[in-house]
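Box S2. Input/output pair 1.
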Amino acid sequence: MTDEGQRVRCRVFASEPNDLKDERRRGVVLWVPQSLDELINTAKEQLRVSSANCVVSEDGAKILDTNMISDCQKLFLESECT
């Protein structure tokens, strides 16, 4: 959890968490916004991805709220989360 007013960054990649490091496409560092939809839309725009609708952590867990994101956490866009 962060103090009031402290900004949190995250690293977002368009590849899958299980992709080999050498096969991953370049990611983007973003400030974590208030809403998950805003994070997804900004990441999609920056990474030129059209089909993503959810974000997962490096271990494959679905992120449900931006308050769950740790500073500098590695995240991945996915087109279908179950």
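Box S3. Input/output pair 2.
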Amino acid sequence: MTTLAVLSLAATAVYVAACVWWPYAACRRCSGTGKRRSPSGRAWRPCGRCDGTGRRVRAGRYLAELFRSDR
């Protein structure tokens, strides 16, 4: 039981560090390219979810900013 607690604390610490150093991750919809195929499949359009940047804010970073702004 102690090992499980230590491993979960270590995983949480690694995720927090990733959110601090790399606040953005690749967009899930466009896989980080910033563009998607149009419905016809012939043309490329900017990804609507990431606005063509190919990046999204990590969930942990979003929560940290949310709590920080409430103070």
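Caption for Box S3: The chain has two helices and four strands. The CA atoms of residues 33 and 54 lie 5 Å apart.
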